[in-house]
Design goal:
This protein is mainly alpha-helical. The protein has a domain at about 30-235. Helices cover about 80% and strands about 0% of the residues. The mean pLDDT is about 90.
Length: about 325
């Protein structure tokens, strides 16, 4: 049993070691580093969204607001002479604080009403950024001339992805994760067992928002430009929902797998034909909803279960 547990851990450690060594082994592979940067950044944001949307079952379409808060925090402070790295905890903290401010009243709503409310939160935040031009630059946004090297950007996204994955892994094995699962299954029943739904959901949202806010900082350092439409846009919010659904919402590995698929489709289809990526995402989501609502991870688990059952039946016939 210990060997079965050790093998996946050893494989994960080896993959992580190779990922860390990649920019040093291939310093001139800038395109590959850029694609992997996007995978890790999307993986971190997708895992962060999954904390509230997957583990707690609270489908949020407003996480772009937290991404934008983090991105603008870094750009504003960076422009004032701060090191961009020093802005990371501030960006995460402000995003978490903002999530508490908007989350507490939003959690009075349930189901689709909560989801609709988060759309309003995201759009309201975008309009605030658009009209507060003295601070945010308005529609023109904010720009920086030079940022960290591609290798440093890649490693920062990788580190954030590992942290987000680690937090997700811890949550599913903790009492906090049990509380989130209870709320997801039946909020009223969870409350009768002593769980405070509003408090637990607010904590989950704050953790999720902090990670997405830090991702916004990394985004700003990579693109050196932020505007209300680029970080607060509804398409960004939708992307954060699509990735976990593709990979397997409510699972630890699903958001990362969804980020890989999302990045591949976005890079391959969008570059060749306008809006082809949107068509591909639409067809993929339809297939998932119709045939495997638990995403790629769910399909893989179902495949393993079928193989296990088949092998046991074959073994039983052989013994007979």
């Amino acid at each position: 049993m210990s060997k079965r547990i050790a093998l996946p851990q050893l494989a994960s450690a080896l993959v992580l070691l190779c990922a860390v060594a990649l920019p040093f082994a291939l310093p001139h592979a800038e395109y590959a580093l850029d694609v992997l940067f996007l995978i890790f950044l999307y993986g971190a944001m997708s895992s962060a969204w999954n904390i509230i949307g997957g583990f707690a079952g609270q489908i949020s379409f407003g996480h772009a607001a937290f991404l934008g808060v983090g991105a603008y925090t870094t750009m504003i402070l960076w422009g004032e002479g701060w090191s961009p790295w020093a802005t990371l905890p501030i960006a995460g903290g402000l995003a978490a604080l903002y999530s508490v401010v908007v989350g507490v009243p939003a959690f009075r709503l349930r189901g689709p009403y909560f989801s609709i409310a988060t759309i309003g939160i995201g759009e309201a935040t975008r309009l605030i950024a658009l009209n507060w031009s003295k601070l945010t630059g308005g529609a023109s946004g904010l720009t920086m001339a030079e940022g960290p090297s591609p290798a440093v950007q890649y490693l920062s996204a990788l580190a954030l992805c590992v942290v987000a994955f680690g937090i997700s892994w811890w949550i599913v094995r903790s009492r906090f994760g049990l509380a989130l699962s209870a709320i997801k299954q039946d909020t009223d029943a969870a409350q009768t067992l002593g769980v405070s739904p509003t408090l637990v959901k607010t904590q989950a949202l704050a953790i999720s928002a902090a990670l997405v806010g830090i991702a916004g900082s990394v985004y700003a350092m990579h693109y050196l430009f932020v505007s209300p439409d680029s970080v607060f846009g509804f398409s960004t919010a939708i992307a954060l929902v699509i990735m976990p659904i593709i990979g397997g919402v409510g699972t630890v590995w699903g958001p990362l797998i969804g980020a890989v698929v999302y990045t591949f489709i976005r890079e391959e289809f969008a570059a060749k034909l306008a809006d082809a990526d949107l068509l591909a995402f639409g067809l993929l989501l339809i297939a998932i909803v119709l045939f495997e609502p638990k995403g790629i991870v769910g399909a893989w688990q179902a495949f393993i279960r079928r193989r296990t059952v088949a092998s046991r039946v074959a073994g039983a016939h052989g013994d007979g």
